[in-house]
Batch of 4 targets.
Target 1
Amino acid sequence: MAFYDLSKEERLVLVEKINQDIQNDLSSDITENIIKYFSDEDTYIRKTGYLAIGKIFYNKPELQQHILSTLKNLLESDTSTTLSASKVRQTVVNAAGEIGKFHFNKVQHFFDVGLFDKHHSVRNAVIGSVKKMGERNPVPVLAWAKTYLKHPDKEVRREICHGIELRGRTHPQDILPLLKTLEFDETKRVSDTLIHVIGQIAYKKGCLKTVVTHLNTWKNKLLVEKALDEIVDVHNRYKKFAVLTQQEAIDFIDGSYKN
């Protein structure tokens, strides 16, 4: 039975069981239950597993080093592309993301490795983790991300661009200098992601002014025009969440962008 087929009470019992099973594994220096939950078909079981790791890491300081070594072994012991193995690595990266919200220096290795995993789900977990870590712990996470924005692998550049988006939704000034390094990227998938991210960081309170002011310093005017079109479009697509109406966004851009 899937996680959300259970009643709320049953889910609470299951979450407590998963937490206890994983803690018992760690205390006994085994990984039987950890692997079972990390490889589960149900996304929410896997999520409960990696959230459990995060909780134990913070609640049981004496287990922190063992948690890190256990996760490292799980990440590197089976690099095959079988579904169960990739699910384990995906969940390991997500668990590292929980730790990296406050201790990025202790888990950077997981993202250096996961970014180049053969399976897309593991790489996607890196993006998701960079998003949540960047939101809570931006300084070291963005410094790390910056080192990959000129990587020769276009997919790495695209994934990092996507990963820093969430921080930009509340603090666009933090990621705009990083995004600018991609303004002349010749790969369409990268430039498309760049334009998408610029749109996503421009519709919350106070963000449009910050974004347009920074875009005035960019040299690739063709890309900037596409980004401004995306910003205008986002103000319509997300009109329930945008601070300005689409017309107000158009008027602001017309008055502020120096083309």
Note: The chain has a mean pLDDT of 96.
Target 2
Amino acid sequence: MEYIRLTKENLASEHICCALSSNKDIQVLSKKAWLAERLDEGLVFLKGVERGKCFIEYLPMENAWNPIEGAGYMFIDCLWVAGSFKGHGYANDLLARCICDSKGKGKKGLCILSSAKKKPFLADPRYLEHKGFEACDEADNGIQLWHLPFGPDGQKPMFKECARHPHVDEKGFVLYYTSQCPFNAKYVPIVVKAAKEHGIAFKAIHIQNKEEAQNAPTPITTYALFFDGNYLTNEQMNVNKFMKLVSR
């Protein structure tokens, strides 16, 4: 498969691989607006030419929207190959291109979020281990930071203290989220509305910049749901999922 790198010149016309095709869709609009601002900060979005979920998104650690310390590393926001694209080596292709690009930019290595066991919307730890990554830090909620150093391993990347012990002081449901995930533009307002209709305490905090993201009380900032101070999940909620969660 051929791959295309998003630029400011082609961003408006290219699909973004998340099963969203219309540029009028609020999910597409929010994601592309977020991407447009990140391109000037060194973000790379490389995707297959065919429509579907086959892409890698990464940027320099200092500009990552996560509370992580790791000067000189490249942070992978997302490596996603799904559906009919699986089993063709495309993930290996995308990762190899990321490694080559990062080495060319003088980076010390790569970082990515995962966990001891596969979690939704996180990299598969078995795949990462197969490609030479190792877990180098872990938060209390089981979210791990994995890294792939390019040379002799010096100081390893790590979570900032604010993310190491995910917790908020407020009661009820509290959601931290960003526009990095396009699905949030549609589903966050739906869940907020459902919570209000059912008299459920729910506060949604939309992280607006990297400074807020880098000081968030969670290693995952794309979507982090808390209840009565405790971290629950990074899995995006629709109304049915949320109401089932409430019932438990």
Note: The longest helix spans residues 90-104.
Target 3
Amino acid sequence: MSDTTGEGLAEVRERMRAEGVRLVQIEVPELDGGLRCKLLALDKGLSDGIGWSNIIYGLTTADDVYESPFSSYENGFADVFGTPDTATVCRLPWRQDTVAALIDVHDPDGTMTPECPRTMLRCAVDKAAAMGFQPRFAVEYEVAIYYADDDGAPASPATLTPVSRTRNAYSLVRMPGLRALFETFMQRMEDVGTPVVSMHTELGRGAVEFALAHAPPLAAADGAMRAKAYLKELCAERGLVVTFMAKVDADMPGSGGHVHQSLWRDGENVFWDGTGPSETARHYAAGQIEHLPALVALCMANINSYRRRDWQHWVPLNASWGDDNRSAALRLITRPVPNGARFENRLPGADANAYLAIGGMLAAGLDGIERGLAPPPLCSGNAALDESYTKLPAKLADAVDVFERSAFLRRSFGDRFVDHYVLSRRYELELWRSWQESHVSAWEHERYFETI
């Protein structure tokens, strides 16, 4: 990865020119968890004021257009403007003479656009800095990989074959053809400054898990979004398709996007007091537990997200925490070394937007510290069966209602972000309900076709 720390755009641009770079892959995070991109010439791609239609935050993941006060026919889907974050400029060794750069999005008046996920996360990062903390986050993804069909039709698990026929976690022998894929992906992510520290098979046919190295929150989210995009690109090169859907097969486990997190100060992990979890760690946990119902809409943002809910596959159903207990929503990890003390939030699926999930978790934990909250008792055994913990919303519609009513979220990220995100999720619900009403289901065929 190019070392651009402390450099301005002009300096980075001239250094890239000297290195023979001709093209810039500009990357903008969307609300639904992917990256939207443009390929620009060097001078334009590493300059201030790169224009984008504000429709970028008026598109669903499938490019349905919805209107909002921010993006509409009324305002002509006018431009917002992007500035490359020089800390994210990196060479793409598998793309000749090309660098990638993530951009921060600004309104025409120069203020950062609240609808942009990077803006949302920056709010929480600034809060942590004001409190004297240096947070560290790491995301681990579970995905499913299939052999691609070469007929040009849209990819579907109904027509594609998983890369394995058996369920066999932690194996390098059941999918020997993937070892080369693992090695190449890990090398590519190392090259762009986002190391993948582990990669292995998981439960389910074609299931794979990979974990990213911990990093400051913005870098962790940037790396997570890039990892998704770059793994898709690599799989396509090799005749494969990878999906980050939360639940592909009703008979198989879903795909998680677990988030590990800790707070540091002056090079020391403040979640450990020398003998056990610190009071700071307990307050942080209490904040996330209190606000977890409101965070569900960020961590489980799609219709499909809720099909993953299954305690038998270690997906949390309530706002619980436990000591190295994978049945809890918040898993306390203090082994093997105390300086690695952290929490793993097991709520998000692989479909979650890393910026929004990390931003919400960080803000919630900091709120717990500020207010000196005390967490409930640690769970014992299966947290899903413990009725003492607050149940989490089980459907997107309910999660959005809780999200919309959260004074904490509005205080942390502003009404404009909250209202726009609510609108985007309700539009997704509207599309789903419309589809249901206009289609005859397989259940109806099986139940009524011959019996009525």
Note: The CA atoms of residues 302 and 396 lie 7 Å apart.
Target 4
Amino acid sequence: MSIFPERLESWFRKAVPDVRFCSLRYVGERSESLCVRRGVVEPIASGEDAGVMITLADGDGLGYAGTCDLSAEGLQRAMSRARDWAARTAGHMAFSVAPPREPCRGDYRTPVAVPWDSVPLRDKIDLLRAQSDRLHTDPRIVDWDASLWHSETEILYLTADGTRVHQTLNQMVPGLGCTANDGPETVSRSFGGRGFCRQGGLEVLDQTGFRDAAPVLAQETLELLAAPNCPTGTMDLLLAPDQLILQIHESIGHPLELDRILGDERNYAGTSFVTPDMFGRYRYGSELLNVTFDPTDPGQFASYGYDDEGLPARREHIIKDGVLMRGLGGHLSQQRTGVDGVANSRATSWNRPPIDRMANLNLEPGESTFDDMVGSIERGVLMQTNCSWSIDDSRNKFQFGCERGTVIRDGELREVVKKPNYRGLSATFWRSLTHVGNPATREVLGTPFCGKGEPNQVIRVGHAAPACVFTGVQVFGGES
């Protein structure tokens, strides 16, 4: 992939027509996925993909064209198609597209301590075989797997007026899963809901505790098999980070995307209960709620130096002391709404235009220890690891299920329960936040599979969060 940026830049500078705006975004990705399931090595999945997207504004028209033909001729054909589409859309645009910001130049590279290719394939397979064996500790465990997924993505963004941004991102996703059965009962546990996604190399395995997790997951799976169902009622809820990330993602991240608020996503991904007039004054949560957008954290899954329209990444408060401050919208959405946004115009690959997407969206730690939070609860449940979710089209009414629960009674952790669930409304749920865990309770996680857009774009998102306590939550078990 490394030979393309230099050639593409030369070809692009020669091919740019005399138009109001023109950009090239090259994306090349190499990936490999390894899995050992039930002690058997599954076929290795590997792939390479590379291409270019041209964006061109001419007069009041806008055109896109993508191509995987990376020759000078292929680039020229894509440029011509984009210009033709700009001519076709002139006079028919729903809104005007102002030129982007001042040109910028920069480079960004994921810090990597142990490169993926520095460890032989055989050694990586042997590691997964060993973890798979450690999961199968009992005949009642009927399915188990250990996996590693790695990708390296190179991005070059150029504009006719001088922007040049070059980035190389390395992502790692380790996974463990364990399912047990006894008669009519089947339960599962996974490694953080397969949410321990990070940027980096194989050092991520040690950062996340991957090498030591399998025996614990196997034991917890068998424990769940014999556990009673979660109790039902209104009570306090202590959410572990691997569940809280889903709560952040669905009931803060998606409703604050500005293109969704504008109605652009209504047909597919949905709309939002949030309206533009709420920014700067709406109480989204209690005073303990502080949420930041931070692509600058190099260890998180969706870190970068610049978004896919060349806007420099910065850490920004989205919610501060419970008050909604700014939206998750890039350059175009900020123009259309007049609402402050962030550098989050992102595309899944070279063959999609960038749209408003989450990157690293984090709930900032507070001051409570884990013992403090448990001790504050007279009647409640600790819930860990998301396994199911449902939320309405406006990202308001939700219902989430977890893999594992632990009853809290009189300030102490008691019996383990299975199939714990809870429900609520985004517009009120975060106001019931009473304790935010300190940095010792914080975990860095994410998801590789956030879908949105027409045609669909699946993108990688990072979340970091501490454990948190919410009061007066509707909790219910698997038989409700």
Note: The longest strand covers residues 141-159.
